[in-house]
Write a structure and sequence with these properties.
The complex is a heterodimer of chains A (285) and B (99). Chain A is of the alpha+beta class. Chain A has two domains: 228 residues, no CATH class; 36 residues, no CATH class. Chain A has eleven helices and ten strands. The longest helix of chain A is centred in the last third of the chain and has 15 residues. About 15% of the residues of chain A have low confidence. Chain B is mainly alpha-helical and 99 residues long. Chain B has one domain. Chain B is globular, with a radius of gyration of 15 Å. The chains are: A alpha+beta (285), B mainly alpha (99). Chains A and B meet through strand 1, helix 9 and helix 10 of A and helix 1, helix 3, helix 4 and helix 5 of B.
Chain lengths: 285, 99
């Protein structure tokens, strides 16, 4: 099998950096050439966005038939990921192999091709892409499914296929026979709200995504490595690049301690001690 | 043996802690992170740093474990005192309601 050379998508400056050398090592011999090229082609499509969901327990066939379960209401951001930058996409697709290898399961990445017109919501124009159903779903998508509860699914005709993993490597790609290039179904009963907006489009528009391949190589030289050893576009040339968002401990404190009552907290202390043998750890230290 | 629900909560906690800034993450004992990592393994890709925690439908156990970690690792003595007072008040109200 011929493998994709990550140097093709990695800017020269990154290749000299030790951190990105390690990314290159991670990528090498993992992504077959045809799949790597397909991912770049899909990710650079100006009319569509490529989104993906990492899963393991639901067979691809079931997802192709029923659609992808969307957790957290109608917002597809809660269940799917998007990497406008091809390097980010490759790292995440590659890392999916070990993402849920728990219990000897294989894993897979479901790829979806969504027209930008459906994501950038415009009332009366955007075509709904989600359906709500009362059917009892199989366990999957990382979600605990409650019997009888209404679930939201992304329509199967937007799913292009599934990358199948075995032993930590991409073992193959299955195309979804139910994928449709033209979406001409009736809108009745389907869901389309402003919650659908995939904000990543706006946030990362100034990233490498959307540029043709030759321009990507040119722009690559404008990349700089910041103090956190993360790549970013030159701030003067690409002023809209947003910094990496990280959570603050204040947010966690505010969220987790706000409504906890003492009895619950005591119980939690006991629980977490029991689960992780914290006392034992402490004694050993 | 950790049951299904706890396993999901542990995966959520591990993911949330991993999204912390490095300085904050250093406050969490590495042994605990290691244990969380060993017991995680559930798909929690819906947890993203740009989505505030209150907008996520997290397991109640996740909040419990995060509360313990926040209290133990992130609160200073003054904050612990403040939280203890609030928790004590809550406990008294809880007991009054149940009596």
């Amino acid at each position: 099998m011929e493998y994709f050379d990550p140097a093709i998508i990695m800017p020269k400056k990154m290749l000299q950096d030790e951190f990105f050398q390690s990314i290159k090592r991670d990528l090498t011999n993992r992504i077959p050439k045809d799949i790597g090229e397909m991912l770049i082609r899909e990710n650079n499509d100006p009319e569509h966005i490529l989104i993906y969901h990492r899963t393991s327990r639901v067979p691809a066939k079931t997802i192709f038939q029923n659609g992808l379960l969307i957790a957290g209401g109608n917002n597809i951001e809660y269940t799917t990921s998007r990497d406008p930058n091809n390097i980010g996409l490759f790292v995440n697709i590659n890392g999916a192999a070990g993402y849920k290898s728990d219990g000897g399961y294989g894993s897979r990445v479901i790829l979806m091709r969504i027209p930008k017109s459906a994501i950038e919501y415009e009332p009366g124009i955007s075509k709904p892409i989600l359906m709500k159903t009362d059917d009892v779903a199989e366990q999957g998508g990382g979600m605990a499914i409650v019997a009888g509860k209404t679930q939201t699914y992304l329509l199967p005709e937007y799913i292009i296929g599934s990358l199948e993993y075995e032993d930590g490597k991409i073992a193959g790609y299955i195309e979804n026979p139910n994928y449709r290039e033209v979406h001409d179904y009736q809108n009745n009963g389907l869901t389309c709200t402003e919650e659908l907006i995939y904000s990543f489009i706006e946030q990362k528009r100034s990233d490498l995504q959307g540029l043709d391949f030759d321009t990507q190589i040119e722009v690559a030289d404008q990349l700089i490595i910041d103090e956190n050893n993360e790549y970013m576009l030159h701030p003067e040339k690409f002023p809209k690049v947003s910094p990496k968002v990280t959570r603050s401990e204040e947010e966690i404190k505010e969220f987790s301690l706000k409504d906890i009552v003492l009895s619950k907290l005591k119980k939690s202390f006991e629980k977490i001690k029991r689960i992780f043998d914290l006392d034992k750890e402490k004694d050993e230290r | 043996m950790i049951d299904f629900k706890n396993k999901k909560a542990i995966s959520e906690v591990y993911e949330i802690l991993n999204q912390l800034k490095e300085d904050s993450l250093k406050k969490v004992p590495p042994e605990l992170m290691e244990k969380l990592r060993n017991h995680a393994g559930y798909d929690v890709s819906y947890i993203k740093p740009e989505i505030p925690l209150e907008k996520l439908e997290l397991e109640p156990e996740t909040k419990d474990i995060l509360a313990v970690i926040s209290y133990q690792c992130f609160c200073n003595e003054e904050e612990k005192k403040k939280w203890n007072q609030i928790l004590l008040k809550n406990e008294m109200e809880y007991r009054r309601k149940n009596n």
